[in-house]
Amino acid sequence: MSTGWIVLGVIVVLVFLAFSAYNRLVALSQRVGQAFADIDVQLKQRHDLIPNLVETVKGYASHERGTLDDVIKARNSAMSAQGPAQVSAAENQLSGALGRLIALSEAYPDLKANANFQQLASELSDLENKIAASRRFFNNAVQEYNTGIQQMPAALFAGMFGFTRKEFFDLGTSRTEVEATPQVKF
Fold first, then answer.
1. Closest CA to 57 of 113, 105, 95, 109
2. Is Transmembrane set as a keyword in this record (predicted)?
3. Whole-model pTM?
4. CB–CB of 74/97 below 8 Å?
5. CA-wise closest residue to 93 among 107, 81, 105
């Protein structure tokens, strides 16, 4: 009879550990989802700002059609991207195109002095800072989640419950492109 109680006790402990691990992993997964939603809000604001910026630049630098088209194409690609990996890649392309667009202001003093352009560029800079902060928060949430599914006892149950590793929102291979200073030639 005492063996039965011991087996029952072990089963109860295992069930408790499974429930506890599951609940913790659900909370971590929700945090990752919420962090990605925060990034998405900031990116939507940036996407909404871009047409105004392009229209302002178009008035001063209409013959820079290629750069303007690149920005619009990158924006459309970024808006249709799904999931952290695709969004990250598309946003990196958009950041590069925006960098080239902002660099145009150096070649057009009237554009650079335009109050509307200055306001839009300032808003864009503020959004870029918010996006960077949101990325850091997201990556921290992903790191905690990935660590959580690898730690014991959750590692015993994570696969059974369908919890898999999540990807970071990283600059990846395009890091050199994004960090490169745009060349301005007169």
1. 105
2. yes
3. 0.74
4. yes
5. 81
Average pLDDT score over residue span 90-117: 83
DSSP one-letter string for the chain: -HHHHHHHHHHHHHHHHHHHHHHHHHHHHHHHHHHHHHHHHHHHHHHHHHHHHHHHHHHH-TT-HHHHHHHHHHHHHHHH--HHHHHHHHHHHHHHHHHHHHHHHHH-HHHHH-HHHHHHHHHHHHHHHHHHHHHHHHHHHHHHHHHHHHSTTHHHHHTTTT---------GGGHHHHHSPPP---
- Whats the size of the chain, residue-wise? 186
pLDDT confidence band for 113 (50 / 70 / 90): confident
pLDDT tens for 121-141 read 889 889 989 998 999 999 999
The two three-digit tokens of residue 137, written as one number: 């928060």
Q: Give the range among 90-94, 131-135, 175-179 with minimum mean pLDDT.
A: 175-179
Q: What's the farthest any 2 CA atoms get from each other in the chain? A: 91
CA atoms within 13 A on the CB side of 57: 26
